[in-house]
């Protein structure tokens, strides 16, 4: 399974714009995308969810939290049965 880890604050095209481009393609419509950002205020996280991110992980990244988020996105995809996160 592919999971995209997308930084919210990138130069040129930020994470929100990048997600819109991803979701506009047939291949990206259902692609799991996790936002990576230091901006994890409640209102911002709600905005990311409304935009179509599957989850949000705070920076600096706690690797255990990231692995858990990937596992949750994987489980929500309906493909987790009988397989491990890779």
Summarize the structure.
The protein is of the alpha/beta class and 86 residues long.
Round the mean pLDDT to the nearest integer and report it: 90
> In DSSP terms, counting alpha (H) and pi (I) runs of 4 or more, how many helices?
3
Strand content: 15-25%
- Which sheet architecture does the biggest sheet show? 3 strands, parallel
Name some characteristics of this structure.
3 strands; disordered C terminus; Rossmann fold; alpha/beta; 86 residues; 3-stranded parallel beta sheet
What does this molecule look like?
Helix content is 40%, strand content 15%. The protein is of the alpha/beta class. The chain has one domain (4-76): Response regulator (Rossmann fold, 3-Layer(aba) Sandwich), CATH 3.40.50.2300. A 3-stranded parallel sheet has the order 1-2-3, with helices on both faces. 13% of the residues are buried. The model is unreliable at 81-86 (pLDDT under 50).
